[in-house]
Amino acid sequence: MKRNNFKYTHGRTCVYNINYHIIWGTKYRNKWMTVDLENEIKQILHDIASENGFTINHIEIGLDDHVHLLVSAPPKLSVTVIVKCLKGTSSFRLFRLHPELKKFYWNKEDRHIWSPSYFVESIGITNMDAVDKYIDDQRLKEQKHHEQNTSGN
């Protein structure tokens, strides 16, 4: 598939521009996504997207307990399939690479590191720049808000 300058993707039988802003959190909002893990999580998510035929155009980790993504996908992939691939496979890979994460989740049989819910909205060409900026600014806004709340202001 080939992308052009107008953000359209040319597939074998169709031309499309399907983008999703997806957000999900860690289970119980546990804050285990440290700066040390951040790049590894991003790489794992990019790898999963590549393996499954969609792309992650933008990604950011928010306050160590949730993930913001801007995903571009072909029409044959539903958003539920995309989220299932990203959350399920990343959970499996992260537990395998970092067994210490299991301490955050006491259920021995059916451990999950991500909350079962997620937020998604579709994004058109005119909104992509705004969502890119929102994702970029999100971590800074959350850190500032957290600092204000913890300092008593």
Query: How much β-strand is present in the residues?
Result: 15-25%
Helix content: 40-55%
User: Could you give the distance between the termini?
Assistant: 51 Å
- Secondary-structure element order, as H and E? EEEEHEEHEH
Polypeptide structure, described:
The chain is an alpha+beta fold and 153 residues long. The protein has helices at residues 35-51, 79-97, 125-151, and strands at residues 2-3, 9-10, 15-16, 19-25, 55-62, 66-72, 119-123. The strands form 2 sheets. The protein has a 4-stranded antiparallel β-sheet, with helices on both faces. Strand 2 and strand 3 (15-16) form a beta hairpin. Helix 1 crosses helix 2 (79-97). The longest helix is centred in the last third of the chain and has 27 residues, at 125-151. The radius of gyration is 17 Å and the shape is globular. The mean pLDDT is 85.
